């Protein structure tokens, strides 16, 4: 069973490869801000962070199926992740000063990362089913981190394009004191959630192993 990843995220690709899955990757074309506004208008209320991640994951998977369906014969996975601290969504910091301020805010405290997934069964030229889920992990940053350590991390450039401003599988791995939840969820793709979705669509998860 071939897995198609509706993402070009190196982190998500790394998680899958480490789990014995070599997916075919497609870059989704989704105007996320417009899509969120449209969905919130339909609901008449703001989307929660878990709802956001699953909705965006669904749109990415559906976009790839819509544009590349003729090339696809397998399962298409879309995903999105959001990190919250004190209930505030912290996206990619982009700027060093923003990354440093967020790292200091997170130091010694626990944030929540939501990872949304949407899996589409598209075989034989047609969509046969779809399912979604959100997995959540709690991430605690060490309280004894010195300002100099955080400054060196920001200077490396690693956190600037990462949601929440850290990566457990990168330089910040030594800064993360504790994780409650699936470690892969923190990287952006929950393997336990993927396994459950594959089973929900009627397939054995080991059928994805192709490395």
Automatic annotation (TrEMBL):
Pfam families: Maf. It catalyses: a 2'-deoxyribonucleoside 5'-triphosphate + H2O = a 2'-deoxyribonucleoside 5'-phosphate + diphosphate + H(+); a ribonucleoside 5'-triphosphate + H2O = a ribonucleoside 5'-phosphate + diphosphate + H(+). Its main location: cytoplasm. It is an enzyme of class 3 (hydrolase). Keywords: Cytoplasm, Hydrolase, Nucleotide metabolism. Its cofactor is a divalent metal cation. One of its GO terms (biological process) is nucleotide metabolic process. Belongs to the Maf family. This is Nucleoside triphosphate pyrophosphatase. The lineage of its organism: Bacteria, Bacillati, Actinomycetota, Actinomycetes, Micrococcales.
